[in-house]
TrEMBL record:
Listed PROSITE patterns: MFS
Alphabetical keyword list: Membrane, Transmembrane, Transmembrane helix
Span of domain Major facilitator superfamily (MFS) profile: 12-487
Membrane-topology annotation of the record: Multi-pass membrane protein
Gene3D superfamilies found in the cross-reference section: Multidrug resistance protein D
Descriptive protein name: EmrB/QacA subfamily drug resistance transporter
InterPro entries hit by this protein: MFS, MFS_dom, MFS_trans_sf
Highest taxon of source: Bacteria
Record's subcellular location: Cell membrane
Length: 509
């Protein structure tokens, strides 16, 4: 029986999406629990920073290595190992008694999440073809949109149920029973191994994996350590070893290719235009849209005095519309191609531009309602971007390297997210601090907030949204250039076909 006829493919997809949702949710859900963690564990600012940043760093660190190992050995085994580790580290995070221990467990939790996620894309690529693959990626796009946007809402709800003192523990412990249910299902339904896995002894490029992982860490570190509040300029020096390690990785990979050995990143991937453009569009778009939710949450909680669950409710329409339109995008991409992504990016840009105007001019509850409507528009566009772009990026990728391809795409997304969050929050806090509110940026959590403070936070949100809008427009430019390239290629192929037909007719006559 062929992979595309696997009777368990939709069940396997459901398991993959559920686990992917949990691991991606943990990127955003912790933000609303930080005040609870600070109060319960007495965490300092540096420890809080590492509780958030450590997960993102470790997540990005292992994506490509995990994808490569899954391609060579067993995607199911890597998935199950990662899921089991995620369950254990989630339990550990919910039971720790010190902030330092929580930061360390979060690093381990990020590693386990990074083991799982490349396998999700690889399994979709392996089990689905044609229109079914588009629908599967549409479901994955829904998962990404929901996990990113509903984190504040779910986190706020858990805190409301379990209380401010220990509610943060529930944010982590909720993963445990869900993961325990999914573990046996993953082992039962995920494909045992890829049919086109290399025969015989396989070569794992350990040096290349280490170089790429180290380059990823040093490259992401300055951005995940950026809070916009008294950050040390020295953090940017991490980019120097990051760049040197990246150069060393490229040189090493070329050496591997010349010696006839299998590199970490197949050269065929880099030379595939659909994959390269899809990766670049993904980096720019994730840089643009991921930072939105943190600055909106800060604005609503610190600027308007909303409770965490209320702040999450404002952002829920983004998640709902993103999920609905991801399904539409997944079905249309096979017929419309890159045009679906272009339309989606235009809609996202329109929603963010409207949100910018609202933030700068309307405050209070009315402003929050209007902001929610603008985010709903952006969410609809986002649904037309993420899953169609994933589908197009992987359309020409052989299933044998689907894991490493998925790892490269997701690493780009994580790097883009780190850059975007750093840029938007830095601009946000610089506006707040510049207005003399500095210490109130996190303290103005509940109750009535003076109109002057609301206005300052509104301007800060407006400035942050402009950064996000600029990054989304960059993604739009890349997508339009690719669309024109594709249209030109189609016209060229059509003209060549017509010319050939005319020559054949002339020969007959």
């Amino acid at each position: 029986m062929s992979d595309q006829q696997d009777p368990n493919r939709w069940r396997a997809l459901a398991v993959c999406l559920a686990v992917g949702f949990m691991t991606l949710l943990d990127v955003s859900i912790v933000n609303v629990a930080l005040p609870s963690i600070e109060g319960s564990l007495g965490a300092g600012s540096s420890e809080v920073q590492w509780i958030v940043a450590g997960y993102a760093l470790a997540f990005g660190l292992v994506l490509v290595p995990a994808g490569r190992i899954g391609d060579l050995y067993s995607r199911r085994l890597m998935f199950v190992i990662g899921l089991a580790g995620f369950v254990l580290t989630s339990a550990g995070a919910g039971l720790v008694q010190s902030a330092t221990a929580l930061a360390l467990v979060r690093l381990a939790q990020g590693i386990t999440a990074g083991l799982v996620n490349p396998q999700v894309l690889a399994v979709i690529q392996q089990l689905f073809t044609g229109a079914e693959r588009g629908r599967a990626f549409g479901a994955f796009g829904t998962t990404i949109g929901l996990s990113t946007a509903v984190g504040p809402l779910l986190g706020g709800a858990i805190l409301a149920v379990f209380g401010e003192e220990n509610g943060w523990r529930g944010v982590f412990l909720v993963n445990v029973p869900i993961g325990l249910v999914l573990l046996p299902l993953a082992w039962r339904w995920l494909p045992r191994a890829a049919k086109d896995r290399p025969a015989g002894r396989v070569h794992l490029d350990v040096v290349g994996l280490v170089l790429l992982a180290a380059a990823t860490v040093f490259g992401m570190l300055p951005f995940v350590l950026t809070t916009g509040q008294g950050d040390s300029p020295a953090r940017w020096f991490f980019l120097v070893p990051g760049a040197l390690l990246l150069v060393a990785f490229v040189l090493w990979e070329r050496r591997q290719g010349r010696q006839g050995r299998e590199p970490v990143v197949d050269g065929e991937l880099v030379r595939t235009p659909s994959f390269s453009v899809g990766a670049l569009v993904g980096i720019a778009y994730f840089a643009g849209f991921t930072g939105i939710f943190l600055v909106v949450t800060l604005y609503l909680q610190s600027g308007l005095g909303f409770a965490p669950w209320q702040a999450g409710l404002v952002q829920t329409p983004f998640a709902v519309l993103s999920g609905l339109f991801a399904q539409i995008g997944g079905r249309q991409v096979a017929r419309r191609g890159r045009g679906v992504v272009v339309v989606g990016l235009v809609v996202v840009a329109a929603g963010l531009a409207a949100a910018d105007l609202v933030a700068a001019s309307v405050q209070g509850t009315g402003g929050a309602v209007a902001l929610s409507a603008c985010l709903a528009v952006a969410g609809a566009g986002s649904g037309l971007v993420i899953s169609p772009n994933q589908t197009l990026a992987l359309a020409d990728v052989p299933p044998r390297v689907a894991g490493v391809a998925g790892g490269v795409l997701q690493t780009g997304q994580r790097v883009g997210s780190a850059v975007g969050v750093a840029a938007t929050t830095a601009i946000f806090f610089s506006t707040v601090v510049g207005a003399g509110l500095g210490g109130k940026a996190r303290a103005a959590g509940s109750g009535d907030v003076p109109a002057a403070v609301q206005e300052v936070f509104g301007k800060a949100l407006s400035h942050g949204l402009r950064v996000s809008l600029g990054l989304v427009l960059l993604a739009l430019v890349l997508a339009v250039v690719d669309l024109r390239r594709r249209v030109g290629h189609q016209h060229g192929a059509h003209d060549a076909s017509v010319a050939k037909h005319r020559v054949e007719r002339a020969g007959v006559e």
